[in-house]
Amino acid sequence: MTKTTKGPGSKTPAAPRGLEVRLRTARGRTTTQQGWLQRQLNDPYVRAAQAQGWRSRAAFKLMELDDRYSLIHRGSRIIDLGAAPGGWSQVAVKRGCGAIVGVDLLEIPSVTGVRFIHGDFMDPDMPDRLRAELGGPADLVMSDMAPNTTGHTMTDHVRIVALAELALDFALQTLAPGGSFIAKVLQGGSEKQLLDPMKRAFASVRHAKPPASRKDSSEMYVVAKGFRHTPGSVVRT
Question: Is 94 one of the catalytic residues?
Answer without folding.
Answer: no
